[in-house]
Write a structure and sequence with these properties.
Layout: H1 15-35, H2 48-55, H3 58-79, H4 83-128, E1 134-135, E2 139-146, E3 157-164, E4 167-175, H5 183-199, H6 203-224, E5 231-238, E6 243-249, E7 255-258, E8 261-264, E9 287-290, E10 296-300, H7 302-305, H8 317-324, H9 332-344, E11 352-359
Antiparallel strand pairs: 1-2, 2-11, 3-4, 4-5, 5-6, 6-9, 7-8, 7-10, 10-11
Length: 362
């Protein structure tokens, strides 16, 4: 792909493109002349510009169209025939060639538009998705991010890692809804987390800042006719201490793999999602759990736990993790994503985000 999204075809400055036209034309002409059949093959050359239009540039399609018109005229003149018939064949060939040129121009414009859209989506993805793997003083983080709308490259699932003087703070969240409509809320949550993770002394303060951001986003959405959205989120605070603080806002609790065993961490009753904090009976509380050296945490969104196979069975995440517990793969998130696709036997129906966390070696 060249700058501006134009697809590169065969290079006209090399003999390959022209030689290809010449060889095809020579083969068709030889078959027509040597066979002596009443059924002529040279009209098939009319499809040559259409083939070039689907693969090459506008300029190459014009060259192929002119070449075919001249070749068809030369072959019909050599083989003889009624002048009116020859003129009609040449005219039809020229019209089809012109249509091929217009078709190629339309394809090139569409490719340029797609390229621009994908460039914008890639820039947006860099704002939402941090490149992984990532190492901090406290933890090594790897992961997998796969939006359901692959062409958009972004979706409603998100994650973020913030390194502060309090420790490493990790967010994984899922915005209600899919694809581009959920991105505004996702950006609001990420922006508030990135700021609050450095500013707030407590994890509860970080979550409260995110709650306020979602509330403001929903207020704005209501004035524009957009639906209000909820956000499930799990926020962790990891330091040199052997335990981790977590605040669970209606999200999937993490799974821990340690000493050949895999289980879901008990964080107690989850709090309400972000965006409906006023409905909670009280402030969101945190929980602590052990995260010893050598253990691994697996965080994910419901695109994993709610995935189904063709028979309707849910993906058995804990069972799969138990199977890998004795010898966890180096790229556990990637292996999990591949196994998930094999289980569902189809493209994902929801955004997928998976994070794996291991303590950094001293």
């Amino acid at each position: 792909m060249t700058d501006g999204g134009r697809r590169e075809g065969p290079n006209l400055s090399t003999p390959a493109f022209v030689a290809g036209l010449a060889v095809i034309t020579a083969m068709v002409a030889a078959l027509d002349i040597l066979s002596g059949s009443a059924v002529r093959l040279f009209p098939l050359l009319i499809f040559l510009p259409a083939i070039v239009a689907g693969l090459g540039t506008v300029r190459q399609t014009i060259v192929a169209s002119v070449w075919v018109v001249l070749a068809a005229g030369g072959i019909t003149t050599y083989l003889g025939g009624e002048p009116n018939d020859n003129l009609l064949a040449a005219g039809f060939t020229a019209v089809f060639g012109a249509l091929s040129v217009f078709g190629c121009a339309y394809r090139v414009r569409r490719e340029e538009e797609v390229h621009r859209l994908r460039s914008a989506a890639a820039a947006l993805q860099q704002l939402i998705v941090r490149p992984l793997p990532l190492r901090t003083a406290d933890v090594v983080i790897d992961g997998l991010y796969q939006p359901v709308e692959e062409d958009t490259m972004v979706g409603g699932d998100m994650y973020e890692v913030a390194v502060s003087h309090h420790g490493t703070r990790v967010l994984i969240a899922d915005v209600q809804g899919k694809g581009l409509p959920a991105i505004g809320t996702a950006l609001a949550v990420l922006g508030s987390f990135r700021e609050a993770a450095y500013r707030e002394e407590t994890l509860a303060g970080v979550v409260e800042a995110m709650e306020n951001a979602v509330a403001r986003q929903n207020t704005f959405a209501a004035t524009t006719g957009e639906p209000e959205r909820l956000v499930t989120a799990l926020v962790l605070d990891i330091s040199r201490r052997l335990d981790v603080e977590a605040v669970n806002c209606g999200h999937i609790a993490p799974y821990m793999i340690h000493r050949g065993d895999a289980r879901q961490v008990d964080l107690g009753e989850p709090s309400v999602p972000l965006g409906v904090g006023t409905l909670a009976p009280g402030p969101r509380g945190g929980a602590r759990f052990a995260f010893p050296p050598g253990a691994a945490l697996v965080l994910c969104t419901d695109g994993v736990t709610e995935a189904r196979d063709p028979r309707g069975a849910f993906y058995p995440l804990e069972e799969r993790l138990e199977g890998w517990a004795s010898d966890p793969p180096d790229r556990l998130a990637q292996v999990l994503g591949e196994d998930l696709r094999a289980f569902t036997r189809t493209a994902p129906r929801d955004d997928i985000a998976i994070l794996t966390l291991r303590r950094s070696e001293s």
